[in-house]
Amino acid sequence: MTQDELKDAVAAAALDEIRPLLGRNVVIGVGTGSTANRFIDKLATLRGDFRGAVASSEATAERLRGHGIDVFELNETGTLPVYVDGADEVNAHFHMIKGGGAALTREKIVAACSERFVCIADASKRVGRLGNFPLPVEVIPMARSYVARELVRLGADPVYREGVITDNGNQILDCYEFMIDDPEAMEARLNSIAGVVTNGLFAARGADVLLLGTDQGVERLTPSGE
Ligand SMILES: O=C(CO)[C@H](O)[C@H](O)COP(=O)(O)O
Predict the structure, then answer these.
(1) Is the ipTM of this complex over 0.90?
(2) I need a surface site. Which of 106, 127, 168, 203 has the fewest CB within 10 A?
(3) For ligand 1, what atom is nearest to the CA of residue 85?
(4) What is the pLDDT of residue 226?
(5) Taking CB atoms and a 6 Å cutoff, what residues make up the pocket around ligand 1?
(6) What class of enzyme is it (predicted)?
């Protein structure tokens, strides 16, 4: 199967995963990226079965609205039952690198506010150790050079993602050559650098369900193996 077919398969599986959670008053969290987009397109078929969605990016909000799905501000909704999103890498502990699409901050906020994180990913995203994919760090623009120097001190090779402004008006440094042995500790360490808004490690709050697209079908995996 092609990578696009695998993305389609996990998007369809996510629909089955969330269907029992839906209801007239239910608002769900929706992520960003090409896999999430496929999920959004399929979600449109369930439009009458739930109230609407909180989007993790302006692009996602626009796509949802394009399908006639109501988009809510997170401040209006309280805790969400489920958040569905892709990942750039995911390890055996369901820790992830995210933010390839520069939406990491809002993704982390919506994930934090959701009872369950359903990660949808094709098999190429599964890794033993996080870090082959360059780790994105969102920074306040005036702090970019300072944060880059701090990242070098930590062993990374940060590269400014030129021309990209996040939905929050900030900039992105992508950390190359940065293999991560302890994702939780590194997530906290990076967040302690002045000027860092968020980093793309989702470890303190990883995925609760991983729907992994493989040539043999979609595997449904949970940290406990249930
Ligand atoms: O974190 C993200 C966007 O900020 C995406 O979830 C991640 O980049 C995966 O994207 P795709 O589904 O296109 O491979």
Answers:
(1) yes
(2) 168
(3) 6
(4) 65
(5) 31-35, 85-88, 98-104, 107
(6) isomerase
